[in-house]
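HUMAN: I'm a chemist; might I ask for a sequence paired with its structure tokens?

ASSISTANT:
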Amino acid sequence: METLEIQVDARDPGSKQKARRLRRSGKIPGVLYGPKTQTIALELNKKEFSSRVAGLEGSHLVRLKSDATSLVDKVALVKEMQFHPITGEVVHADLYEVDLTAKIRVQVPLHFVGKAVGVVRGGILQPIVREIEVECLPLDIPDFFNVEVSDLDIGDSAHIEDLTMPEGIKAIYESNLALVAVVPPTVEEAPTPTAAPVEAVAVAPAAPEETKESES
């Protein structure tokens, strides 16, 4: 995995108002933490981080460049990003410091490649999961896994045990997890015809019979 270098600076943690002022100045507030690292409040260059890191798929390592001696050349995993609900811009980033010699667990995205036989026959390719968890050294984190689906017919599925793991990478799962399947096409049932409503017809009451007068 490629390690991206980004510029960071330490900042004094503060209120939400301080964070808003920081964002208005073109910075993103963040934090660096880890099992052997005391939490450090950070500020990151918004333009650099958004263009080089925020839009990338999967897990990514960053090497920190800073004037602060406590941050120089630390390597971290981008653990979490928070986005503005309307603009979609990054508003906060959590960085997790890693030891390059110790294995970690991360999520790796799946790419489904090929055109399934079952899809040609009218079936629907249905991904079941979009990423899987693996354990490996930080520098060995895959960008993604390709899942070949060309041979899948209707009713077939590909499982996690079908994936070939590179050396040093272990998939974490308890059962042979299904990753993708080809399902039969959805057939919409024709609507059941309903009887036309019977219109009520007003019936005039019968005229009463005239009483014949008795002849005198």
About this structure: The CA atoms of residues 8 and 44 lie 5 Å apart.
